Amino acid sequence: MSLHLYPFLIRTVHSQAQFFNLSRFNTVHHYHRTLAFSARSIATTTITLRTAATAKRLLPSMSTSLEYTPDRAQELVDNLSDVVKRMEQTLQSKGDNAQKARLVAVSKYKPASDILAVYEKSGHCHFGENYVQELEEKSKELPKDIQWHFIGSLQSNKCKIVAAIPNLFVVETVDSAKKASTLDKACVSAARSEPLRIFLQINTSGEDTKSGMLPNEALEVAQHVVSSCPHLKLSGLMTIGSPNPDLDNGENPDFKTLNQCKATIEEALKITDLELSMGMSDDFERALLQGSTNVRIGSTIFGSRPKKTTVQ
Ligand SMILES: *Cc1c(COP(=O)(O)O)cnc(C)c1O
Question: Which sequence positions carry the modification called N6-(pyridoxal phosphate)lysine (predicted)?
Answer without folding.
Answer: 108
